[in-house]
Amino acid sequence: MTAPLSAVSVDCPAKTNLTLHVGAPHTEWGGRHELDTIYCAVGVYDTVTATRKMPGTGFSLNLEGTHLGDLASSGSDMRRNHAVLALFALAEASGNEPDVALSIDKRIPVGAGLAGGSADAAATLLALNKLWNLDWPLARLRKVAATLGADMPFCLSGGYAHGTGFGERIEALPPNCDTVRDLTDRGFAGCLLVGAYRAELRTPEVYAAFDQIGAGEGDENHLQQAAISLHPRSGQAIEAALESGASHAFVSGSGPSVIAFVPDDKAASSVGLAWQESRTVDRIIAAQAPAVPIVHIIA
Ligand SMILES: C[C@](O)(CO)[C@H](O)COP(=O)(O)OP(=O)(O)OC[C@H]1O[C@@H](n2ccc(N)nc2=O)[C@H](O)[C@@H]1O
Ligand SMILES: Nc1ncnc2c1ncn2[C@@H]1O[C@H](COP(=O)(O)OP(=O)(O)OP(=O)(O)O)[C@@H](O)[C@H]1O
Predict the structure, then answer these.
(1) What is the ipTM of this complex?
(2) Which of 46, 120, 151, 219 is catalytic?
(3) Which of 65, 87, 95, 138 has the fewest CB atoms below 10 angstroms from its CB?
(4) What GO MF terms are annotated (predicted)?
(5) CATH code of 196's domain
(6) Average pLDDT over every residue of 225-238
């Protein structure tokens, strides 16, 4: 019998949507809209470390990172942190006590349309699946994740996936399938730049704006026009990126961050320069797509 693990950490990538077609809201989904989306995990990672604590001492949460957005305020309620919600949900589902120290090293911009909170929740589920020696299959973890938020089931596996329902029904798209080959041929793979902002957008507000103004003509992300109506600089950044060599540029999910796929280093530097000169983004993060979660056994 091997000794129980005492600490596991997971690097979990951010999420974007290569397409995001939005349908009607459903009351049975708490007002969430029906979606048909191609999810793509991108290589900007949060790292969640779960460390076993003495029985009966409860949970603790520590946040690291230089861009914590509204999480930095002392008023940010630890018990509402998505990683803590995931800890309690899996404790409940598996009959374990939540005597775990969670430490999150945040690199994914907050409230950005990159599913940073969902990534942290997924990382917590993956870490505890190991720490508590549950060894549950992905499908079983996805059931727990779907109770926490629409993006969380996808964040458990990353890569590319087709999402339906309110986004929680996931069909993984294997690297050698026709859809992924087509996405790759069209430039939705390899190097990309994330245009990030100090400003955040609240997802419910973007969906509410979508209900008012609908999708933009030809937009593959039906929330793009709504996000830009709330945060115009995202639209300016998309134009600047396309004019300076990006193969694709769009708002990431509910925004405000912008994703620009660039075919080579020359395009990457000219898009970066265009964003700096036009001051249409606050921060630029270079990353690769697709990306997957990485589990590390610490001790
Ligand atoms: C915009 C996307 O990131 C695209 O992947 C997701 O649809 C949002 O996923 P998420 O942030 O995990 O969303 P949740 O935390 O489940 O829901 C937050 C709020 O977003 C809105 N929401 C979310 C998902 C969905 N399919 N329809 C919605 O209208 C609802 O107002 C909901 O109360
Ligand atoms: N671990 C966490 N990381 C980031 N945000 C969190 C976390 N826990 C709770 N939150 C709250 O969730 C809100 C949304 O954060 P998040 O970064 O997930 O937004 P998002 O990237 O727009 O999500 P999505 O793309 O799924 O709509 C934040 O404003 C924050 O208050």
Answers:
(1) 0.96
(2) 151
(3) 95
(4) 4-(cytidine 5'-diphospho)-2-C-methyl-D-erythritol kinase activity; ATP binding
(5) 3.30.70.890
(6) 98
